[in-house]
Amino acid sequence: MNVPKELLREILVKLPTRDVARCCYVCRLWRAVVSKPSFRDLHAANHAADSADAELLLVSERRVPGWTDEASVFNVSSGKPMLPVTIPRGYSLANVCNGFLCFFHGDEAKAPAVVCNPVTGEKLTLPREAPAPGDHLSHLVALGFSPSTHEYKLFRFSFWPENNYPGNPVHVHVHTLGGAGGGGWRHHLYLSEARPIRYNPPLYIDGKLYLVNAGSATSDYRRMADRMMVLDVATETRRMYRLPYPRAQYRPWNPLVDAFEMNGKLCLAVNDLHDHDPCGRKIQFWVMSPPRDDQHLDAGDEDEDDSKDNDDYKLYWDLRYSFRVDGPYSDFQMTAAWLDGGGILCYRHGDTLYKYDTRGHSVSDTMADCPPYDQKLQLPATTPSSFKCEQDTEVYRPFICQWDMSWDIYCGYRPTLLSPLALSPPPRQDAYHEDHSGHKLEQDVLNIVRCHQEI
Q1: Ramachandran quadrant class, 221 (left: phi over 0; alpha: psi -120 to 50; beta: rest)
Q2: Which entry of 54, 131, 382, 422 is 20 to 30 Å from 353 by CA?
Q3: Phi/psi zone of residue 66: left (φ > 0), alpha (ψ -120 to 50 degrees), beta?
């Protein structure tokens, strides 16, 4: 039975993204229909990625000397692999934004970010980074989306890693992608004692970027995560919020946090280490409610004395779950947290995975009443390259290790057929001369060969 292409197009465009991706393997006709850019644009318009249900991704990065680095992507719910992504040497995943993965080079400020779609396998090298505002700066990159304007924007945060002065400058460079991105990079500067933490990647949730910030150093020169920066992608304005615990309560032990998306909201997994309990440690899961205009710290209030009794964090943080895990916390282990589709909270500490069933449990503030985990599983071992470990003095964790093979679970992925090529800036008239400035001989030959046209 032959189905007209027009009718097949009308049927397939109504299917979810995951089902459309499978249609490529049915027959050549179906593959030809769904592979057309016009079909993908129409499907993306009818299935807005920011309104789809979020999924979990397992992303692994392999680095083998002499080979090109590669990122493998798996859908956690289905367990099936998606298309692998070849990434430049030294790049790692910056964040997930709707159906796109954004990769960046953490040590090279001018290296351009790379965006890919794991459904289609397409990738795009974004505009080169803006000039660095200074030497010896740390950088974070994030891709964001504005639902109100339907624009994607690339953000780069540059800051001094060890500066402990109230006037610490934080530089934010922004580039609007796609057809509206012809204006180049915009620069925002603000002064703050707090600055982003490198080991907490930015999170995109519903038109906003969330970045965990560290405040002033303690008496032993350790910084503590105690602020959450919420940046509106559309307006490019930021606000600071207190994290959900009294800062003085945790000195000299710094709370170690992992941020992730839970049912469309920001959630923090906080390791409670201050009790020194021999039975283990407690992990609290705090959910951030949508902040109102009166629930923020103005720029002048960020350095407020936290030793005062200040409970303003209770206005917009909700302690949703907590459970107890065994064993000490190790600074050399990777951590992550996520909620699977069955209501099971998962917490990774190195090669150990703790699972906790949220159904039928109540929250407890004390260690004695805090329930233990429900399941403890051993993960495949991943070992760092010891010669690549370097000391990191800017945060509590004393070392940052580079791994030959690393993996992590990422929340908030919403599949789409939209091509990352749609994020390309419009071509400029002088683009040829900029991109081919190193081909002077060829240009001279062309000028001589083509000179007869002017005779």
Answers
A1: left
A2: 54
A3: left
CB 170 within 8 A of CB 188: no
Residue 166 identity (one-letter amino acid): P
pLDDT over 70 (residue 302): no
- In the prediction, which pLDDT does 198 show? 82
- pLDDT, tens digit, 9 for 90 and up, residues 55-75: 899 999 888 777 788 899 998
Q: Does residue 343 register a pLDDT over 50?
A: yes
| Tokens, residue 274 | 């201050």
Closest CA to 431 of 184, 186, 187: 184
CB 380 within 8 A of CB 356: no
Q: How many CA within 13 A on the CB side of residue 328? A: 5
Q: How far apart are CA 193 and CA 205, in angstroms?
A: 25
Which CA distances in Å does 367 have to 3, 252, 282, 322, 327?
A: 64, 19, 7, 10, 14
d(CA 227, CA 205): 17
Closest-CA residue to 258 (of 350, 181, 343): 350
Structure-token pair, residue 426: 């419009």
Q: Are 297 and 241 in contact (CB under 8 A)?
A: yes
Nearest to 365 by CA among 284, 244, 271, 246: 284
CA–CA distance, 93 with 340 (Å, rounded to integer):
21
Predicted TM-score (pTM) of the model is 0.80
Rg (CA), the chain: 24
Six token digits for residue 453 = 């046209």
Are 371 and 323 within 8 A, CB to CB? yes
Sheet holding 169-176, edge to edge: 138-146, 151-159, 169-176, 186-191
For the chain, what is the largest distance between any 2 Cα atoms, rounded to a whole number of angstroms?
Answer: 93
pLDDT tens-place string over residues 234-293:
999 998 888 887 655 554 445 578 899 988 899 999 887 655 555 568 889 999 986 665
Q: What is the signed CA dihedral for 93, 102, 285, 306, rounded to 10 degrees?
A: 90
Packing angle, helices 5-12 and 28-35, rounded to 10 = 70
What is the total residue count of the chain? 455
Burial of residue 229 (number of CB atoms within 10 Å: 0-12, 13-18, 19+): buried
